[in-house]
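Sat 14:20. Reprocessing the chain from the morning session after the first attempt stalled halfway. Input below, unchanged.
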Amino acid sequence: MSNKQKIGLALGSGSSRGWSHVGIIKELNKLGVEPDIICGTSVGAMVGAAYAKGNMDRLAEWACSLTKLDVARFVDINTSMKGFVDIKRFHGFLTEYIAGDDDKIEDLPKTFAAVATDMYSGREIWLTQGSIVQAVWASMSLPGLFPVIKNEDRWLTDGGLVNPVPVSVCRALGADIVIAVNLNGDIVGKHVAKSGVKEIKKEQKHGFTQKVSDLVEEYTSFQFSGGDENQEQAPSLLNAIAASVNITQDRITRSRMAGDPPDIVFAPKLSHIGLLELYRAQEAIEEGKKCVQRNSSELEYVLGR
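Finished this time. Tokens:
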């Protein structure tokens, strides 16, 4: 009878900072650490599902190839106000780089769970069976950006609203040791300037409409716009959303992790990366690797090596 302890990996929410999950997983594998249980919230669910399905390297290669223009193309400028993200393009991305429409969570070689929130009851929902794509989509449905998704007669939205770092889910699914990744440790106040206006050069518009160019700036760089450049400006719409999400997730993360602490926490330093700066994957992945390296001694201790 094996006495091997089961290792759980709790991958937290954090939008574009979530690319660091890739670096963390790669470095853990390099050190011989293979999680048995993977639980993710929001972008953590996306990367965790890709890893469990064997598609993480393909996902990382795609992420590192992204440009600002590629990110802007995911924005639906003819939005019906259910969300800013082009759902057809997003669905195509999920099926190409995460899992197929017919792939089921219960068929994965590792135990996997995605965390979502019931929009009406506010309850935390653990998605441990059924469609991988639907589970990831539900967990990532950040209000205002993605439309909510229906699952078994429930309208589900982003899991970061209730459990940004799903340590408790790992424990419930049988993990003896839980490694947590918290992307929200140093983000409060980072996307709202205290004074003045940050100067950002406008990129040339090569054959792209002015409206979409404005979206590139608005939804990827979080710059302030309009008014006297010497006068302090109010945060833009998405800037305000980003700051609100940061505050909420930071507070919830602190509360949940205090009540159910993991055995070790990796907290990559990524506060400089904005909500939708998905094109900065390479630096996020590298910081993920460095974060594990900085904490390798503690990791070895926790694992009893």
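Confidence is low (pLDDT under 50) at residues 191-213, 219-227.
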